[in-house]
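Reading a protein record of the kind used here takes only a little practice. An example makes this concrete, so a full record is given next.
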Amino acid sequence: MKLIDAHHHFWDPVRNYHPWLRNEPMIPFRYGDYSTIRSRFMAEEYDQASQGWDVVASVTMEGEWDPADPTGEALWMQGVADASDRPAAHVAQAWLDRDDLSAVIDVIAELPIVRSVRHKPRANAAPGGAPGGMSDPAYRRGFKALAEAGLMFDLQTPWWHLSEVPAMAELAPDVPIILNHTGLPSDRSPEGLAGWRAAMEAFARMPQAVVKISGLGLPCRSWSIEDNRDIIRQAIDIFSPDRAMFASNFPVDGLCGSFDTIISGFDVATQSYGDSERDALFVGTAARIYGIEAVPK
């Protein structure tokens, strides 16, 4: 089975400054202690992690590079791709509410490797409370600017903020919005899962909405198909295989399970789907959305 890994990271925090990977103390993190991933993770480390799987292409995600150097990571990643033909596409860092957004877009939009941008909006720790960052006028203006540059938007936010997306999306309805990490269904109580499903169903009604099924780890638990099968299948059924794709989120999700455990879990969870549906989930959707050409058959 072939795979396009639609979301993973390359980083080398010894050479390049990622504050969360270098600074002390470490930041609070949803998987807990992340000290084991504060080290180089490049093609060699990725190949070791993914051995046994036919990864035909992949998409790298920004890794919260030094905010004082807003185009540095995208330029560096373009150099990595030029030297090795990997990755096939990159999601660049860009702060939608910063005054320098226009200048940043001018640079990253010219890089062949860049397809999309990510800026995690401000979020509440739990449902309820004040609106999050997607309600800020400056953030919305930044989202609209992506349309003019022909860029997509990768959105990472907890499911309880998805209700803010439609008002923002109206400003640039042609910009694809790719939801990262399955909407972060961390609360696995019946109430939490019901809220997650309702939010995902509402989000999926927008024609430009796509989902990456990834980031399903739970703190202090090893990744298991028992924990995640129903969420994987519900996400697929809500969006359809043509608007869903699988991703490893490595090395981050390596805190919860091996590459083989996670991708094998996606395989097991989708055994009842047809061959064309599985091809879309593992290869086709990511290739179409991120413009990855010449995927081996």
In short: The chain has a mean pLDDT of 97. The chain has one domain: 2-289. DSSP finds ten helices and eight strands in the chain.
